[in-house]
Design brief:
By secondary structure, the chain is of the alpha+beta class. It is built from 5 helices and 10 strands. The protein starts with 12 loop residues before the first helix and ends with a strand. The N terminus is likely disordered.
């Protein structure tokens, strides 16, 4: 992977965080279709990348604390597994407005990197099956590709099996 590539519209907090950390990454931009039913599947198709290598960033409420879950777009988040991974009892999807306020990103463009408020993060263990994965760069139509090890380190993520097919 190369260092950050120039993209139209400048950097996002996610790409700034990666650059500041000196982490190798590649930016992939594509034309976002507002009518698309799934942001993650749209990204995988537009980039020509297998959906098991493109990860979506979801925000859940685990026992009253917002928690980020990073799972493949090809599957779903297992809320019980997420709660267990962080020592919690109950998890539910967070209110979208609360997720946007806490992360500083809009739904469909939430990145696990460069968030306004650093949230507890869990990365699905399947990420380790790949040399690199793609996650949102903080804007619809913009993805960053990086190693899952670097993503886990930069977000202080717990790596656990939280996705299901």
């Amino acid at each position: 992977m190369a260092k950050k590539q120039k993209t139209s519209g400048g950097g996002t907090p996610a790409t700034v965080a990666l650059t500041t950390a000196g982490t190798p990454f590649t930016v992939h931009a594509y034309e976002h279709d507002p009518a698309s039913a799934s942001y993650g599947e749209e990204a995988a198709e537009a980039l020509g990348v297998s959906p098991d290598r493109v990860f979506k960033t979801l925000v859940a409420d685990v026992d009253g604390e917002l928690t980020v879950a990073v799972v493949p777009v090809a599957g779903q988040l297992d809320l019980k597994a997420l709660a267990s991974a962080v020592g919690g009892k109950r998890a539910s999807m967070a209110d979208p407005a609360a997720a946007e306020r806490a992360t500083g990103y809009v739904r469909g463009g939430i990145s696990p990197l460069g968030q306004r408020k650093r949230l507890r993060t869990v990365l699905d263990a399947s990420a380790r099956d790949h040399a690199s994965i793609c996650v949102s760069a903080g804007r619809r139509g913009l993805e960053v590709e990086l190693s899952p090890t670097d993503l886990a380190a930069l977000t202080s993520a717990v790596v656990a099996p939280i996705g299901r097919a």
